[in-house]
């Protein structure tokens, strides 16, 4: 595999498992040094560090809760300090809470919006301030969802956060272009990750979902990581303000069951 990211340093938030882990591995395979992140350092982080080090890449894990503004700003500053610079920011960390709209609590709303939007907003701001100060180019990839575009009943706060991310990315594409900073979203559809384990275990629900996916399969985390790697690379040098759907055709073939 070519070294598209030689001498580049990438921070991937929420990279202990699932899509974040796949993104970290893909960027490392293509030459990037990696800063991993999660709320706490555990055996998953240890295993990932060992795997990336085997590739001959430098790697460090920084524990931080990206739902807290102070923590996410410190995370960016600490990430810059680890290897002396930062080129790529992948905002992967996110969460969802299922509830009927009339049952959503303020606490649940806040944790979803703080993690999926507020933390990302101020993390991007800290990264932009760094790039501006050092007169460096930068690349930002946000992990959105097909639900920035299509409905997801019983997940109203989650959909609101992803819809806002869509508009934030389009706005920042214009504002950051003069600084030579690109920003794009990747919107996974139904992907085989720990967050979807209940669905995978429910054959009836899974079959209904597959009926809505023209490609008739769930996505793999590697499918998403490949698009993230493209957007992070110089090959996407003229791409900003876009959302790339990685969904097997789901988004414009979707019907709620």
TrEMBL record:
GO molecular function, one term: glucose 1-dehydrogenase [NAD(P)+] activity
Classification via Pfam families: adh_short_C2
Enzyme Commission number(s) from the entry: 1.1.1.47
Key words, A-Z: Oxidoreductase
Tagged with keyword Nucleus: no
Keyword Aminoacyl-tRNA synthetase part of the UniProt annotation: no
InterPro entries, sorted: NAD(P)-bd_dom_sf (IPR036291), Sc_DH/Rdtase_CS (IPR020904), SDR_fam (IPR002347)
Top enzyme class: oxidoreductase
Family (UniProt): Belongs to the short-chain dehydrogenases/reductases (SDR) family.
Protein name: Glucose 1-dehydrogenase
